[in-house]
UniProtKB/TrEMBL annotation:
Lineage top rank: taxon: Bacteria
TM ranges: 7-25
UniProt keyword Transmembrane helix, yes or no: yes
Family per record: Belongs to the transglycosylase Slt family.
Species of origin: Algoriphagus alkaliphilus
Name of this protein: Transglycosylase SLT domain-containing protein
tRNA-binding is among the record's keywords: no
Annotated Transglycosylase SLT domain residues: 111-214
Any Pfam family matching the protein: SLT
PANTHER family, sorted: MEMBRANE-BOUND LYTIC MUREIN TRANSGLYCOSYLASE C, SOLUBLE LYTIC MUREIN TRANSGLYCOSYLASE-RELATED
Keywords for the protein's UniProt record, in alphabetical order: Membrane, Transmembrane, Transmembrane helix
Length: 313
């Protein structure tokens, strides 16, 4: 076989490979269209092209305060820390949607109780940062909306026994948190320090102030969690007060609502809560849903004491 024939064969071979590669690259999608990446019969997932326009930057406020106290956004590290928490939370869409929908059930009542106890309205965002407005528990033993430790709960008047844990009681735990905030403010003198101390403890925050010769939260070098803590609260404040600016648009009917509840006063032991709930025309599920502070299947009532149990009308 001559050299010219070999050259022709190699040329045709490379041409065939090139055309095949182009065909694979060209199909099933072309740049700029929205066709499926794979045949729907084999893998029914719709694909789409992501462009830079899909991700947008937000206009961060130039001025901001927490509980009436200025946030020094003119400092580069402060602005960056705030921006971090805004983007982390604003683009965690599933969590933010549920937070906004859930907030209608609880924030109005939290606002009322904070106001009645002389606590700035911004502290409602502490509950969001602590628990996402859910009765959760932590490995450290903190419980409820406000993530109160057992020792702290008892210090502020909450009952914590085998069958009652008022850290899970929405109203009583909120009042306990308000008492904590008021006491901490008497100690530190500013609300920003109060919020920070709620995360790391009053003694821990005081120790950092003494060690670093600064009392201002924004001037302290703190552990990662507390360093981010207030900025998470501020991020929630900004997003909740301007949801539309971050792409969250809700109708009134989109928010979750608590049904109308009736109050039953109990001053005697209940040996079987599921049966008791059924006798009230309700269910054990509703009993636990609206009274999460009931921690067992029975309720022991001390002489002279009574409890208020909520059930749907």
């Amino acid at each position: 076989m001559s050299r010219n024939h070999l050259f022709l064969i190699y040329f045709l071979l490379f041409l065939a490979i090139g055309l095949g590669t182009w065909a694979i690259w060209k199909s099933p999608i072309e740049k700029g269209n929205n066709e499926n990446l794979l045949d729907e019969r084999s893998y029914p997932v719709q694909a789409f092209t992501i462009t830079r326009d899909s991700i947008r930057l937000f206009d961060i406020p130039k001025k901001l305060d927490f509980a009436g106290e200025k946030v020094p956004l003119e400092k580069g590290d402060i602005f960056e820390r705030l921006e971090r928490e805004i983007y982390v939370n604003a683009y965690w869409e599933s969590n933010m949607i549920l937070l906004l929908k859930r907030s209608a059930k609880y924030l109005p009542e939290i606002e009322r109780m904070l106001k009645e106890n002389g606590i700035p309205d911004d502290f409602k965002y502490v509950a969001i940062a602590e628990s996402a407005l859910m009765n959760v528990g932590s490995p450290a033993g903190a419980r409820g909306f406000w993530q109160i430790l057992e020792s702290t709960g008892k210090e502020y008047g909450l009952e914590i026994t085998n069958n009652v844990d008022e850290r899970y009681h929405f109203e009583k735990s909120t009042l306990a948190a308000a008492k904590y905030f008021k006491k901490a403010h008497a100690k530190f003198g500013d609300w920003t320090a109060v919020a920070a101390s709620y995360n790391m403890g009053q003694s821990g925050f005081s120790k950092r102030q003494e060690e670093q010769l600064h009392s201002n939260y924004y001037e302290l070098y703190l552990n990662e969690e507390t360093s981010r803590y207030l900025f998470r609260i501020l991020a929630f404040k900004i997003i909740f007060e301007n949801p539309g600016a971050f792409g969250y648009h809700f109708r009134e009917s989109d928010y979750y609502q608590t049904p109308v509840l009736r109050t039953i006063r109990v001053d005697e032991d209940i040996k079987d809560l599921p049966k008791w709930a059924k006798d009230q025309g309700s269910s054990y599920k509703d009993l636990k849903l609206y009274n999460p502070w009931l921690r067992d299947r029975n309720l022991n009532v001390k002489r002279g004491k009574s409890y208020e149990i909520l059930l749907p009308e």
